[in-house]
Structure formats: C-alpha cells, structure tokens
Specification:
Length: 173
C-alpha cells in the first residue's frame, strides 16, 4: 500500500501543510517526506482577500500533491481573539478538501503530542524533534507551522484504525 497524507495546521496569517508518503512493505511500515510549507497572508489585507489567498493556494497545493487523506488539527485556543479568524481560514480549508473529495480526519493538539512523544502535554520542541526523527530528517522543518502540519500527518499514520481503513478501501475513508 502506498498512500499520501497531508497534514494541516490551520491559521489565517500562516497555514502550515506537510505531506508524507506512507507505505506498508510486509510488516515494515514507512513514512517519508514529500513536501511541506506554509500559506501566508498579509496582515494588512482585508479578511476576504486573505481567505481568497488561502483558497487559491490550497487548490494549488492539493493539485500538486494529490493526497489520499487530509489530517487537520482541531481548533484549540489560548486567546479568544484568534478564534474567529482561524475558524474562518479553517472553513476555507474544509471547503477546498470537500471540493477535491479528500477524506478528512481530525486530532486535538493533545492527541498529536501523545502520538509523537508519548506525552499529551509535550512541548513544541519535543514534537518537532519527533517529526525530524520519524521522517529521518537532518534538521527540524521550518517554519514551525510546517513542522506542526507534518506532526498532524504523522499522527494519522500512527493510528492503526485509520491505516486499516486506508488499506481496505480504494477511495480512502
């Protein structure tokens, strides 16, 4: 089985994405890096223009990477002021995924941290080090939002139920 997973760390100013190629060779599952990056929007632009930029850039990323499954970090905020703009960007992300008919799974920040480090309250550097280790990278991917998106994708790869569903269907979940 070869499947391509794309992880997203949603945001209005910076939306991170990370793509991994997963394969099961007998009992030796492997995940390798395909691509990662960020979609950025200028702070001084109007909200509508920022959402259009995200929408257009997401279409480009999805067309180029052709993922079998999308994995998105669930919303979780420390400051209420960020909630609505990030939720709006997340809505654009979900719309683009629906238009491409890409199945979606979601994980909380604690689930992602636990999957990569074994500890649900791990710090960001621990998660980023785990991403580099799991993908056999010499350095931690930058910017942080892209590394976080790769962590999201890896979380799905580590979930045996999701992988079993991917392996048992041609159209994914």
């Amino acid at each position: 089985m070869q499947k391509r997973l794309i992880g997203f760390d949603p945001g209005l100013a910076i939306l991170g994405f990370g793509v991994i190629q997963c394969s099961s060779l007998n009992d030796n599952p492997q995940a390798s890096l395909v691509d990662f990056g960020v979609i950025t929007t200028p702070k001084n632009s109007k909200i509508g223009q920022r959402l259009c930029t995200i929408y257009q850039d997401l279409h480009t990323v999805l067309e180029q990477t052709k993922p079998d499954l999308a994995v998105v970090e669930k919303l979780f905020f420390y400051r209420m002021g960020n909630t609505i703009p990030v939720a709006q960007a997340r809505g654009v992300l979900l719309l683009a995924l629906a238009q491409f008919e890409i199945p979606l799974v979601e994980f909380t920040p604690a689930q992602i941290k636990k999957a990569l480090t074994g500890y649900g309250n791990a710090k960001k550097p621990q998660v980023q080090e785990a991403v580099a280790r799991e993908l056999e990278l010499a350095t931690i991917p930058k910017p942080d939002d892209a590394a976080d998106a790769l962590a999201v994708a890896l979380t799905a790869w580590f979930d045996p139920d999701i992988i079993a569903q991917l392996e048992s269907t041609h159209s994914c979940l």
